[in-house]
Specification:
Oligomer: single chain
Radius of gyration: 13 Å
Strand order of the largest sheet: 2-1-7-6-5-4-3
Structural class: mainly beta
Strand content: over 45%
Helix content: under 10%
Largest sheet: 7 strands, antiparallel
Distance between the termini: 12 Å
Number of domains: 1
């Protein structure tokens, strides 16, 4: 079972963590808009269902470390995704 957790709170914590209502893994991700491959809003192939809306999961990627997030009410909100099948 694939799970997604959403972490609400101010940067640095403390965070309130809750499970998303669902997660979808698309076959392909939308194209990366940045030529270098790095950037603040790289779309991933993951979408989560939260508060009745499907939301695209984005990755803020600088150097070789990325952070996953979704936009909720105009704010970037941290997401943690756990996949049961590593081939996805």
């Amino acid at each position: 079972m694939n799970l997604a957790y959403i972490q609400h709170g101010e940067w640095g914590g403390p965070y309130r963590t809750e499970m998303a209502d669902g997660i979808a893994v698309d076959a392909y991700a939308p194209p990366n808009p940045y030529k270098s491959g790095y950037g603040p809003k790289i779309p991933t192939r993951y979408r989560i269902l939260y508060l009745g809306h499907w939301r695209r999961v984005y990755c803020a990627l600088y150097a070789n470390s990325g952070s996953l997030y979704v936009i909720i009410l105009g704010d970037a909100t941290i997401v943690s995704i756990e996949l049961s099948d590593c081939s996805q």
